[in-house]
Amino acid sequence: MSYSTDELARELLEEKAYPYWVDPHLYHYIDIPRGWFRLVSDLIDVLVNLDRDPLDPRMRLLHIKEMPGGYLSVSADHLNADQAELIRAACDLSSTICVHCGKPGDLSRVSAEDELAVLCPDHLALAIMAAARRLPAPAAS
């Protein structure tokens, strides 16, 4: 299942957070579903605004990604208490946002291999139909 943020959206997020990466000259690790773009974009904005000195940022981002089990993971160093709380809140909120469209959703099993994702009712219905098509035909008796 592919629902990653497209390359242009990823570049926009990376540019927004540019001075805050551990090493801004290295590859920046953002791997999130499309539906979480607004959440992560807003989170970066607020984290940057809470940094003590934008000319000499203390916060350092390591990665922003989706973890197995359908939740956001943000790894960062040198956070102040407000930044740490905002990251925790965004990670918690991600477990209620559809990975495809950003609408409210619930954690759902989306494959026979027990793959989990947060899906709105519309995308859950599509996932169920897709899974049903992949099931083997019942054996004849």
Show the helix and strand layout.
Blueprint lengths: L6 H10 L13 E2 L5 H14 L9 E8 L3 E7 L3 H14 L11 E4 L6 E4 L1 H14 L7
Helix pairs in contact: 2-3
Quick tags:
alpha+beta, single chain, 5 strands, two-stranded antiparallel sheet, 18% strand, elongated, 141 residues
Architecture overview:
The chain is an alpha+beta fold and 141 residues long. The protein has a domain at 7-97. It has helices spanning 7-16, 37-50, 81-94, 121-134; strands at 30-31, 60-67, 71-77, 106-109, 116-119. β4 (106-109) and β5 form a beta hairpin. The longest helix has 14 residues, at 37-50. It is elongated and about 55 Å long. The two termini are 34 Å apart. The mean pLDDT is 81.
The fraction of residues in strands falls at 15-25%
One letter per element, helices H and strands E, the order comes to HEHEEHEEH
Total of helices? 4
What integer is the average pLDDT? 81
Low-confidence stretches: none
Q: What helical percentage do the residues reach? A: 25-40%
N/C terminus separation: 34 Å
Side by side, the strands of the main sheet go 1-2-3
Shape: elongated
Number of strands: 5
Structural class of the helix and strand makeup? alpha+beta
Task: Please give a quick description of this structure.
This protein is α+β, with helices and mostly antiparallel strands and 141 residues long. The chain has helices at 7-16, 37-50, 81-94, 121-134; strands at residues 30-31, 60-67, 71-77, 106-109, 116-119. A 3-stranded mixed β-sheet has the order 1-2-3. A two-stranded antiparallel ribbon has the order 4-5.
